[in-house]
Amino acid sequence: KLFGKLIVIYSAGILSPVARRWKGQFNENSKAWAFYESFSELNHNAVVGYEFPKEMKNKIYIVMLRCPSLHPRILTRYQITSEILEKAGVEHDIIDSQGKNDLTRIMSLVFLGDWVSYYLAMLNQTDPTPVKMIDYLKQRLNSY
């Protein structure tokens, strides 16, 4: 589902750092465009941007990371945002954490994101280990 797509990760609360990690792992391992947004802020602006450019609907995939310990009002936002995405024709999934406490829930999503970024690198036919652009940036910065 993520192959060939611009990936946007939505999250909230304790999962915001996890979404940031997913973004970084997709960027570095998969060499893919990825961004992240946080509830409830994304409901004040990002949802309005689903209209244009129209051709982006086919080029974007939204992953919503969720866990049961989030505030009930935030969990409601996940459901309503999913409905809005459905109406807008934007592909998306809600990924629920696994575990009995917040730490295990966080780690379940960290591990999942790491593996998904690895497999996406394989689909992209790229080695996930070198970060040539970062190496280039560091080299250039060292020359100043």
UniProtKB/TrEMBL annotation:
InterPro entries (alphabetical): Glu6P/Mann6P_isomerase_C, SIS_dom_sf
Family of the protein in this entry: Belongs to the PGI/PMI family.
UniProt keyword annotations, A-Z: Isomerase
Bifunctional glucose-6-phosphate/mannose-6-phosphate isomerase C-terminal domain: residues covered: 1-141
Organism listed in the record: marine sediment metagenome
This protein's record includes keyword Isomerase: yes
GO MF assignments: carbohydrate derivative binding; glucose-6-phosphate isomerase activity; mannose-6-phosphate isomerase activity
GO annotation terms (biological process): carbohydrate derivative metabolic process; carbohydrate metabolic process
Isomerase in keyword set: yes
Protein name: Bifunctional glucose-6-phosphate/mannose-6-phosphate isomerase C-terminal domain-containing protein
Pfam families recorded: bact-PGI_C (PF10432)
